[in-house]
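Need residues for this backbone.
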């Protein structure tokens, strides 16, 4: 019987702004860059969604 925990869900990589990066490998740094890029894209999409909703509301009340 094997006690290897390969079936356990992997802990999701997270990044905390300002943390020490010196102990991370190049691969870990690249993974964090990709994580942050995807988060920036998600944030920008939400900004665009909210801006279009606000524009629609302003347009409605101007009429």
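Answer:
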């Amino acid at each position: 019987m094997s006690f290897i925990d390969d079936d356990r869900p992997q802990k999701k990589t997270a990044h905390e702004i300002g943390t020490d990066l010196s102990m991370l490998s190049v691969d870990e740094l690249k993974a964090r860059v990709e994580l942050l890029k995807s988060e920036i894209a998600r944030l920008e999409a939400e900004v665009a969604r909210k801006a279009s909703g606000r524009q629609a509301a302003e347009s409605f009340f101007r009429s």
